[in-house]
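Re: the 412-residue chain
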Amino acid sequence: MTVTCGIDWASDHHDIALVDHEGVLAARARITDDATGLEQLLKLLAEHGDREDAPIPVAIETSRGLLVSCLRATGRPVYAINPMAAARYRERHAVTRKKSDHLDAMVLANILRTDRAAYRTLPHDSELAQAIAVLARAQQDAVWDRTQASNKLRSHLREYFPGFLTAFESAREGLCHPLARVLLAAAPTPDQAARLTRPQLRALLKRAGRKRAIEAEAERLREVFRRPQMRQPALVEQAMGQQATALLRQLDAACISADDLATAAVEAFDTHPDAAIITSFPGLGALTGARVLAEIGDDRARFADAKGLKAYAGAAPVTRASGKHLAVMARKVKNQRLAAAGYVWAFSALTASPGARAHYDRRRKAGDRHTAAQRNLYNRLLGCLHHCLTDRIHYTETAAFPPSPAEPQAAA
């Protein structure tokens, strides 16, 4: 490797810098963010020794976008450099802290020239795995949007219609429940809810999909809505009801998006060869499994060992040692999406796997708090997942959590 390429990405143009093995600028250019700009970039690389068997590596500060996708399609190594890391390198070249697009492109090229071994190329995931990643991440975003919209609506209802929150305080889905959304759309104010008759309530229950105990539920709702409660002035209450209707539309859109994307993500995940192995683990259903696969991909060379996967997921701790000081801390720099899926996975495994439950209980008895014990369990499960995916075998409870010698004696 004699030439490296750095690309400073922008929304409408990109600055290109090529440096040789001595750090001397070999070429520079500014290309547009379209097919013409990509053709200009490939031509520039070819002029400086780019070959099919020895492509020039490229460093860029993002892992997404059409430019990155097209560069990966050429088979060349593409390195996604963290912008914070690039900012530290920039200070080596400009002590005055000056900044320009061309300078940033040169910094990225020099990162590969000097410290290429410290970075990894973007994984070579299959097209199906990339599609699952798009759907699973979009569904996770929709769930977070749904939670945010629900919290906004809940906060607003507390200011003028607390009786509605009382009616659904025991519902598992809360305001996201179809019945709650149908009722609030029909009666967004306390006055309108109190005027609902039994036939109207029964019709709303059927519209929301209720099939059992309709009479009892209609009577319960009628009694809750007619209880005395503090009220806003009439005009203010009406205005707040209109605001609640607007917030409800946002919640409806988030709920529909989350459900549709969940269906699409599960359908795509079920066709992947790794799906059977991933879902063989306790606590990993199709949707959570799709989220896990979306973040780890199906490029088995991406993680050299299980330690790399655990660090990427944030399950492995960070050790800070300086002189006589030694501290073992939870990892904060991690893949947040994979960490969120891991919390759900570890929590579900507590009831699905006796070995996972015993492992969690041992960590709790050793002094770990709930979160730390769950993270330790997640760390253990990730190691098992890496082994199963590498060896193409399914999860086995006795292999993942072998019984200790004391357990048979206790049973006897």
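The mean pLDDT is 90.
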